[in-house]
Amino acid sequence: MGSGWGPFLQYATKQRGAKIIGLTLSDGQYNACIRKGFDVRIKDCRTVKPEDFGTFDAVVSVGAFEHFCSLEEYKAGKQDKVYHDFFKTVSDLLQKGGRFFLQTMTFAEEMINADDVDIKADKNSDAYILALTAKHLPGSWLPYGAEMITKNAEPFFKVIFISSGRLDYIETIRVWRKMLRRFDLKKYSLYLKVLFQLTKNKEFRHLIPVFRISPIKVCFERGLMDHFRIVFEKV
């Protein structure tokens, strides 16, 4: 659920021998996965039903859950319902005892009030860093800790395993950014192409700082956000 560019599909099929279907909403990701020989469909994973593809032994979602609830839905008091409905969707795709692996970012203990998030705030403030993160990930509002996730999963699943990957993700982002900055003529030519496209975006001025700092990494470092890996089993 949210197959991205196919790394988990690669692992599941090539290393584990699984038969797997990937779902994505991105034409670019779909085409990339198809070129690699993966079975991927363009489909909203929040609305998939057993009659679409059948039922499965396991379901995996890496990095999609954090995009399911919007700020508007949060402010309307719908966040719990969004997650409850999603877990019901996943449960319907599994037999009793089937496993669901979820990896997602969450807000953490130091998270500030949503109304205080402000792109015009001091550039070193939590309010600004969070606003910059929101510009980087538009339309997303994270769950409040693992507790909010497991509470909404409880009618359908029991927790088998849970761990925080916050420190892991800080290191991952550090390595990513180092690799992204490493010079390669083809890579930097693509950067220029993307940069030209971004200049047409009215939000471009808010995207420029992302090239200097990683707001998500700063959120992890300051304890504003956490990152969880959870294995559920259908009850």
Walkthrough of the structure:
By secondary structure, the chain is α/β, with parallel strands linked by helices. It has a single domain (44-234), classed as Rossmann fold. It is built from eleven helices and six strands. It has helices at 7-15, 27-35, 50-53, 71-75, 79-92, 126-136, 145-153, 166-181, 185-198, 204-207, 215-221, and strands at residues 22-24, 40-42, 56-62, 94-107, 157-164, 225-234. It has a four-stranded mixed beta sheet with strand order 3-4-6-5, sandwiched between helices. Strands 1-2 form a two-stranded parallel ribbon. Strand 1, helix 2 (27-35) and strand 2 (40-42) form a beta-alpha-beta unit. Helix 5 (79-92) crosses helix 7, helix 6 (126-136) packs across helix 11 (215-221) and helix 8 (166-181) runs antiparallel to helix 11 (215-221). The radius of gyration is 19 Å and the shape is globular. The mean pLDDT is 93.
Question: What is the highest CATH level, the class?
Answer: Alpha Beta
Residue stretches low in confidence (pLDDT < 50, at least 5 long) are none
- The CATH architecture assignment turns out to be 3-Layer(aba) Sandwich
Number of spatially distinct domains: 1
CATH topology: Rossmann fold
Tally of extended strands? 6
Helical stretch tally = 11
Query: Pairing-aware structural class of the strands and helices?
Result: alpha/beta
CATH H-level superfamily title: Vaccinia Virus protein VP39
Report how far the terminal alpha carbons are from each other.
21 Å
Helix content: 40-55%
Query: What fraction strand?
Result: 15-25%
| Main beta sheet | 4 strands, mixed
Main sheet: which strands, in order across?
Answer: 3-4-6-5
What's the SSE pattern?
Answer: HEHEHEHHEHHEHHHHE
**Average residue pLDDT:** 93
**What is Rg?**
19 Å
